[in-house]
């Protein structure tokens, strides 16, 4: 599963609308929809925001791994 399918699955599994996730990323709903359809590449900063938001590591959100691991926290914070 690539990141396009993964970000949509995460959104739907958590019952968020495209509009809600777009607001989190400070983009319009149409832009976010383009991310999910693969028409526009999602910026790395936005991928990191989504990983933090859904509390999954980047390997999972990018489709490298199918194992959900929590987003890593910096030690001491």
Q: What does this protein structure show overall?
A:
By secondary structure, the chain is mainly α. The chain has a single domain, classed as 434 Repressor (Amino-terminal Domain) (Orthogonal Bundle), CATH 1.10.260. The chain is 56% helix and 0% strand. The protein is built from five helices and no strands.
Annotate the secondary structure layout.
Layout: H1 3-13, H2 18-25, H3 29-37, H4 44-54, H5 58-61
Helix pairs in contact: 2-3
Return the average pLDDT rounded to an integer: 91
Q: Sum up the overall morphology in one term.
A: globular
Main sheet attributes: strand count, strand direction, barrel closure: none
Task: Please bin the fraction of helical residues.
Answer: 55-70%
Which fold name corresponds to the CATH topology? Answer: 434 Repressor (Amino-terminal Domain)
Instruction: Give the C-level CATH assignment.
Output: Mainly Alpha
Q: What is the architecture at the second tier of CATH?
A: Orthogonal Bundle
Which regions have little confidence, pLDDT < 50, spanning 5+ residues?
Answer: none
Q: State the end-to-end distance.
A: 32 Å
How many distinct helices?
5
- Kindly estimate the percentage of residues that lie in beta strands according to DSSP: under 5%
Give me the strand/helix succession: HHHHH
Radius of gyration: 12 Å
CATH superfamily membership, which one?
lambda repressor-like DNA-binding domains
By DSSP, the count of extended strands is 0
Protein name: HTH cro/C1-type domain-containing protein
Keywords: DNA-binding
GO molecular function: DNA binding
InterPro entries: Cro/C1-type_HTH, Lambda_DNA-bd_dom_sf
